[in-house]
Amino acid sequence: MQQLVIQCTAQKGARLPAYKTDGAAGADVCACLSAPVVLAPGKYALIPTGLSFAIPVGFEMQVRARSGLAAKNGIAVLNAPGTIDSDYRGEVKIILINLGDEPFVVNDGDRIAQLVVAPVMQAQFVTADFLDKTARGAGGFGSTGVNA
């Protein structure tokens, strides 16, 4: 697998993101907290990681939920996937939401999300008098149905 070097600064107690398996696309990122945060059902909070990154131009870092937290506790990333742009140098914070039925406690060092590094391309947007026709056309939400 191809690797990209990304520099980061870390506050005291912060942990660098880590891939847990050789084939993992996402690196787990941890909470960096001075005290536990309790997420009540239906509530969300901005959880600090203590990390700032220098993402190379032409790339983004996506923030995604951890499947185990979602399946077992209903914990999701509110703006998933979140995007960290290459020109942002502030601390990365993760917006977690509790979609479960029970309060969930986030502790310092808990693995709270995954970070996926991906290439990006900027587009040039231009106006047109018309768009080419397709079989789908303007069919939107649900237009292709539910059944296979």
Write the layout of secondary structure elements.
Elements: E1 7-10, E2 27-30, E3 37-39, E4 44-48, E5 51-54, E6 59-64, H1 67-73, E7 75-77, E8 82-84, E9 93-98, E10 104-106, E11 111-119
Antiparallel strand pairs: 1-5, 2-11, 3-10, 4-9, 6-8, 6-11, 7-9
Structure explained in plain terms:
There is one protein chain. By secondary structure, the protein is mainly β. The radius of gyration is 19 Å and the shape is globular. The strands form four sheets. The chain has a four-stranded antiparallel sheet, with no helix packed on it. A three-stranded antiparallel sheet has the order 4-9-7.
- Order of strands, widest sheet: 2-11-6-8
What is the overall shape?
globular
Biggest β-sheet description: 4 strands, antiparallel
Give the SSE order as H and E letters.
EEEEEEHEEEEE
- What class, by secondary structure content? mainly beta
Count of β-strands: 11
Sequence stretches where pLDDT stays below 50 over 5 or more residues? none
**Helix content bin:** under 10%
Count the helices. How many? Answer: 1
Average of pLDDT? 95
What fraction of the residues are assigned to beta strands by DSSP? Answer: 25-35%
Radius of gyration: 19 Å
Distance between the termini: 34 Å
